[in-house]
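Structure tokens please, single chain.
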Amino acid sequence: MKKYFFTFLCFLCLVSAHAQTSKAKAKTRPADGYYKKTNVVQSRYTEYPPIKESDILFSRRIWQDIDVREKGNGTFANPQSRLIDIMMDAIMAGELTAYDPTPRKEDPTGDTFSTVFTPEQAFAQFADSVLVPVFDTLGNQTAVVKKPGEFNPDSIIKFRIKEDWIFDKHRSVFEPRIIGIAPMVKKQAAGEYFEEQPAFWIYFPELRPILATKPAYTGYNDASGFSYDDVFMKRMFNGLVSKESNGSNLRVKDYAEGEERIRESDRIKKELAEWEKGLWMPSKPKPEPKKSKKTKENKS
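Here you go.
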């Protein structure tokens, strides 16, 4: 009898231990905060209204460089949500297409999205190549292959955007529309670094649905609820104009250096603002010519 009682007691202990283990496993993970942030993750972007060529009264294409080291651009380099990490994750997952920036006959500027990069080709643009020895089963070196090194996201300090400033007379709206964005890298050859150039181009309308679901940390208010799409649509960044459309295809640095480049960038931006202002500001009436005293005396 005592034997059966002891067996039954052991059985109860095992059942109790199993129940406690199952309960521990079923326990939900504690919430990281007192409310769940879903307003950005579940958000959707708003598409641009369609526009007809016949409704375009004015159009100017410009290229701007965004330096993430500037105080107003720190959002793009925030470790919690880096822009380059968002782009690369989407490219490697097949959600986003990268385009080769190399100029060609059919694409002289290299930014018309003409040649597709594979995800591996896009990734290889960031990491310097390293030589890796290949060994056989006996441990003898048989060859040396070139492979991309590790990618450091902090090395991407600039992004270039290509955009059109358009006045739509049908809606009476003057607005910029971003066409493409490219992370900038410095290429190395023969131990020397060349000027910064695009690693690849991304078609911005394809990127917007992804940016709309990614939070952007823009300041000290964690409840601001801004997404990366908001940052671009609301123009919450500082850019330096590197080129504007012109007949000679000149870049700003081709005719301006140092502080002159900054002044030229400001001039181009001011020119666009003045053009829009001129649409709505009434033209000043011409002053009437003053009548001379002789004319008054003759009339009298």
